[in-house]
Amino acid sequence: MKKSFAIAMAFLLTGVIAGCGSGAKDGEGAQASTASAAQGEVKKIIVGTGTGFPKVCFIDENGKLTGFDVELVRIIDERLPEYEFDIQTQEFSNLLLSLETKKIDFVAHEMEENPERSAKYLFNKEPYAHWRNKIIVAKDNNTIHSLDDLKGKKVLTSATSAQAQILESYNKEHDNAINIVYQNGAANDTVSQLTTGRVDATLGADFSLSLIDPQGKLKITGEDLSEADILFVFRKDDPEEQKLADAIDGVLKELKSDGTLGKLSKEWLGSDFTAD
C-alpha cells in the first residue's frame, strides 16, 4: 500500500517536476528517485537480520519480528519509494556469507566496521548507533577486569561478531590464552551460562547488558575494549549496492535531524545511543 501510494503521488508530481527544467540543483536526487518510482521501477531489496538479539532484532510475544534495527529498516523503507525492503531472518553467523553469495542485499544487525570487515564489505557512511564493547561477568565475580584476566577462562561469544574478533585478535598475540566458547547462533541463555559458571565471561556492547539481563544478575567490568559506529553492511565493488548505501545515508541524516532516530533508540534501547 505504501509503495502504491508513493507511486501514485509521484505520477501527480511528474508534470510539476518536468516544468522546473534542467537547472534545478537542490533535490535533484530526490526528483530522480520519485521519477523512477513513477515509472514503476521499484527495486526489491532483501535485508538480512536475526531473531535472537533482545530489543534489537527479535520475535516478540505476538510472533512479530521487531526491535530497534528492524523498525529502523522499516522507517527507511517508508522514505525510499524507489525501493521495497523485504526483511528476512537468519542465524547471525550466516549473514555475511549470505551477503557475499547475494542471498541478501544488506545486513541490519548492529554491525560495526573494523579493518577485517572493511577489506571485504562496503559500509554506509552515516552511523545509526555508537557502542562501546565491555567485558560482562556474573555480578558476584570480582576477579575479572581486563582481557589479561581472561587467560585460561571460558569466554562466550558469537562467531563472526565484533566481540569474537576482539578475543581472536588477543589470542593471536597471546598463544590462544583465552578459551573462546562460540554459542550456536544468538543463544538466549547467556545469563544462565555466566551465573552457573559454565563460562566465566562474555563481551558485549554497553547498551546490551540491560537487554539480555533485565533481572540484573550480571555486570560490566573494566575499561572499554573498543568503541565503534554501527552501520549497515553491503557488498563491495557493486555500483547498485553503493547507490543503495548512499540513499540510506540520506534518509539517516533526515532521521537524525528530525529526532526520529534518537526517539527510536530511547524506545527500544532505553537511551539515545545514536551519537558518540
Give me the secondary-structure topology:
Layout: H1 2-19, H2 28-38, E1 43-49, E2 52-53, E3 57-59, E4 65-66, H3 68-78, E5 83-89, H4 95-100, E6 106-112, H5 115-118, E7 121-123, E8 129-138, E9 154-158, H6 162-173, E10 179-183, H7 190-195, E11 201-205, H8 209-212, E12 218-235, H9 239-257, H10 260-269
Parallel strand pairs: 1-5, 1-6, 9-10, 9-11
Antiparallel strand pairs: 2-3, 3-4, 6-12, 7-12, 8-11, 8-12
Essential attributes:
276 residues, alpha/beta, D-Maltodextrin-Binding Protein, domain 2, 2 domains, nine-stranded mixed beta sheet, three-stranded antiparallel beta sheet, 10 helices, 12 strands, 37% helix
Descriptive report:
With about 280 residues, the protein is α/β, with parallel strands linked by helices. It folds into two domains: about 150 residues, Periplasmic binding protein-like II (D-Maltodextrin-Binding Protein, domain 2, 3-Layer(aba) Sandwich); about 100 residues, D-Maltodextrin-Binding Protein, domain 2 (3-Layer(aba) Sandwich), CATH 3.40.190.10. It is built from ten helices and twelve strands. The strands form two sheets. Strands 1, 5, 6, 7, 8, 9, 10, 11 and 12 form a nine-stranded mixed sheet that branches. It has a three-stranded antiparallel sheet with strand order 2-3-4. Strand 9, helix 6 and strand 10 form a beta-alpha-beta unit. Helix 1 crosses helix 2. The longest helix has 19 residues. The chain starts with a helix and ends in a 7-residue tail after the last helix. The N terminus is likely disordered. This is Transporter substrate-binding domain-containing protein. InterPro entries: Solute-binding_3/MltF_N.
